[in-house]
Amino acid sequence: MRSDREEIPAPFTKEDADKAEMLEAQQRSTSGTSRMSLLATCQTYWPSPYSVCGDIRDKYNSLGGPASFLSFPTSGNIVNPGNTGERVTFLNGPIYWSAATGAHPVVNSFLNRWGIHGYEAATGMLGYPTTDEIVHADGVGRRQEFQRGAIYVAFQNAIGSAIRNGLIRDRWNAVGAHEPGSLLGYPIQDPVDLPDGQGRMSRFERGVIYWHPTTGAWDVSGAILDKWAQSGYEAGQQKYPTGQPYSTDGDVTLQQNFQAGSITVPGPKAQELALWNPGATADDIVQEAQRLATELSLTITDVVNMGLTEIAGAAEGLGDPDPGVDTIMPTPRGPGDIFYSKAATARVSHGHNGIFATMTHSVEANNNNGVYIIDNTTGGGRIMKSPEMFWVDTSSSMRQSAIDFALSKIGLGYNAQFWSNKVVDAVAYNCSALVWAAFYGPSNGAVDLDADGGLGVWPLDIKHSPLAIPYP
């Protein structure tokens, strides 16, 4: 026997191998039409003592037979309950077949999740597989399609999640499905039938889709989802979503309507401004924009667009900033001079300003201390990042007035919003607002260090001001 000459791979026994060899011999010895019919439909794979037949055999062979990821068969063809199709089990998973869907393997996380939902049963969520496993081009995830839905497996959710065909999946497809940069990303939770007995929801990486028979299927994400969650989702005061988010002010705010109300949150433009103003939230940006719009008789859209336009020349960039060169702060030529140095807050590189009150001390503002005075000679000299020194082209008396102004603000808080900081008598300052106001206020606007005249004054605006004369 072959089992006496060759090693038998686990988990098969000599008895299994001998039975398999006898089955192969019987198939070879069968003559005539019956032999041709048997060989055309079934095949035995030594040392497995099972024959695999029909379309499942063809699929198995196309995958590589025993050399494939399935390995050897552990059953013959099994008729599924209700005579709806067949399956064959292999060491690493089964192949399922039905006349309507063909033959497809289901393995690993897909098999586990499919089993949770009832396999191919008519009462199950998904039914028979209609494809093999599909690897996505994004290198992140895979999926397998079934008669009534799909299972998605991604690195972020290795156990897999199911999604039903229908309006929720249609909505997910409409907002980009799993594609890179899509609104919601991959599903991370199986569909849930909601407690009210009417609605259904699916959860994704970056949001949810809720369906109700009277409102349809709508996605909810971001800050709107956060607020909706705080109120209790569909069981809260707003109930189910009735449409997609929209903006009436050019993306400064976003609004989404629900059955019993609406939710409004900062939109993409307010969020972008907040990125450039670390310490200020997007809600802070909206509130400040509303104040400025009223004060300047402009729309909130105009105000925010002006702020975003000014940033192009006012800040050096987001992300990893230019670190500059560690340098001891130079001695000023006289009190009332100012400086600019490289600096970043929360990875926003917008620089830093200060005004010298004496030859050794400067008045500045930062997010840790508010407005404060610092001795630049302590410890052998204060280390700054590529400091640049300037004198202000105005009278000595005006420079002294600027010093007095700055000293009078010591102890006030910090204003995180550079984009709208041009207030002389403020309750809080950032570094550039303090230096600007110190000259602008006492001079009644005659000494304006804002280079571009925008809504805000940034450290680079002061550096680039024609009135800020660099040391030779």
From TrEMBL:
Renumbered residue ranges of the record's region Disordered: 1-31
Pfam families documented for this protein: LGFP
Biased composition annotated in UniProt, kind: Basic and acidic residues: 1-22
Sections of the chain in a coiled coil: none
Domain of life: Bacteria
Name this polypeptide is given: LGFP repeat-containing protein
Gene source species: Rhodococcus zopfii
